[in-house]
Amino acid sequence: MTQRAAVGARLVETAVAAVARVPVPLLRARTRGGKAAALARQTAMYLAHVGFGFSLTRVGICFGRDRTTVRHACERIEDRRDDPALEFGLDALQAALQAAMLRLDAGPGRAGR
Questions:
Q1: Staple 22 to which of 15, 33, 34, 40, CB 3.0 to 4.6 Å?
Q2: Calpha distance 2→54 (Å, rounded)
Q3: Under a CB-based contact definition with an 8 Å cutoff, are residues 27 and 13 in contact?
Q4: CA nearest neighbour of 41 among 56, 66, 22
């Protein structure tokens, strides 16, 4: 796994956990967990794949899941995007995560130049 993918996955995981009010360890659990944890994990995997363009395999490695599980998560979240509130929230979170990753990619002292 590349360092950028690992950082991106942790960034997404932390942001989604905060928004969903689910502890990060529940997103990392080997078991499915409760409904809220499963939905937050699916959302994080979706954003890592769609927002950062990580392959399904790469996302699976980052989240300790199989690529087919990541594909299922992406399908579940994509199916829910018909809800305007969810659509708005996902778009806002994706934009914020992409901006944060750009700042990290720029490195110290170079962000915003």
A1: 40
A2: 11
A3: yes
A4: 22
